What does this fold into?
Amino acid sequence: MATLPKTKRDAADALRRTIRGIEEAASPEQPRLPLGVSRIDRALPGGGLRLGCIHEVAGDEAATGFCAALLALALAAGPPGGRILWLARGDDLYAPGLVRYGIEAGQLLVVSGLRRREDILWAMEEALRCRAVRGVVAEMGGVAAVS
It folds into this structure.
């Protein structure tokens, strides 16, 4: 078998690692966040949403509630003291309304008025590096990235 030049070999190795990561993502050994609805959890690979990943949620006000419910589950699943960050494009998020989902005011930091996609993505990336942040919602205009 002919050997590939180093750059092509490196690219092939990187592709193999990527494929292996995708295949292992469905592995039950990966940490998961069960949603608590057995029919949904059974349908999800590994019995829940994979932790440490970005999940996309699209919709209207119902999507806001779904994101809030996911973050409340993430807060409850971890050790006490976790915080969540909500990166909002506008100023219409009614933070006291999130209490009914299980998110207390002291657990939530809202940054509103973000307009540029680059700013939202930068803030999300920086927040996810912080161990105190349990999850982030980044409103991207019609789509929310939840991690």
